[in-house]
C-alpha cells in the first residue's frame, strides 16, 4: 500500500520512532542456510507472506511491549477488538 518494502516500513514507523535500535528484520527467504517450507506436494511455498522474523534484545522487546500496552503503537480500540 505504501510502496515501501516491509523491512523499510517497520524500521521507519515502528523501530525508529520508539528508539528500538537493536531490532532487525531477518529476510529468511534470501538466506541459503535456512530451510524452506513446502506443501504436501513437496513444492516450495510461495513467498507471498512475510518469511522471516525479528532479532531483538530483551531491552528493546520491553520497549516495544511497553509502547504496545500503553496504546501508543495502536489504539486501545484496535488492541481490544
TrEMBL record:
Instruction: Indicate what this protein is called per its UniProt record.
Output: Uncharacterized protein
From which domain of life does this come?
Answer: Bacteria
Amino acid at each position: 500500500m505504501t510502496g515501501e518494502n516491509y523491512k523499510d516500513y517497520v524500521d521507519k514507523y515502528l523501530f525508529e520512532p520508539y528508539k528500538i535500535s537493536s531490532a532487525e528484520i531477518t529476510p529468511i527467504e534470501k538466506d541459503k542456510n535456512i530451510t524452506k517450507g513446502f506443501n504436501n506436494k513437496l513444492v516450495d511455498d510461495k513467498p507471498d507472506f512475510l518469511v522471516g522474523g525479528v532479532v531483538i534484545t530483551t531491552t528493546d522487546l520491553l520497549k516495544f511491549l511497553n509502547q504496545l500496552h500503553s496504546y501508543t503503537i495502536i489504539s486501545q480500540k484496535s488492541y481490544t477488538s
